[in-house]
Amino acid sequence: MGSTLCFLILKFNLMNLLLILLCISTQTLIYDFNQESSPRDWRVVNDGVMGGLSVSQFEINENGNGFFHGHVSLENNGGFASVRHQPKRMKLEKETKFSIRVKGDGHTYQLRVKSKLNEYHSYKFIFETTGEWQTISIPFNEMTPTFRGRDLNLPNFNGASMEEIGFLIANKKDQNFKLEVDYIKAI
Q1: Which of 17, 69, 85, 153 is least surrounded by Cβ atoms within 10 Å, i.e. has the fewest?
Q2: Interval 48-66: pLDDT, tens
Q3: pTM of the model
């Protein structure tokens, strides 16, 4: 009887520990790319909205990853390409950072977030790619407000609300680019 009681206590404590760990580790999946993902969940916005000539497209590749690629042109005052996703409104009150798994081409990209769709500005975090798969951690409080390439004197992103997320390339260079994305999470 004594060993049965010890086993039950041990089992109870392990289950409690597992529940505590699950409660502590908050994670919100924003987008997990796979073969069933739809590129229609994402919208390409290039500098053509301002007269530029950059071109890009977004698709799901043969590995089931998001694949954002194209050419950034500096002609006609151009210079950027972006892709955006508008999930239903998310409150990220327990999370403190984004985690993205990407494979770039050695170029610099930005993760962009909008708290609300009707706000004119977004928040950016600039990251470098290496040509290999990388998991990049992006603290909310390091995402700075920006509008049309200008930094703004506003508070950084706080995670209270998110209605849009995406990627942008704008390196002031005429260049081809490709960025593969596996997932985007808030943790």
Answers
A1: 153
A2: 989 999 999 999 999 999 9
A3: 0.86
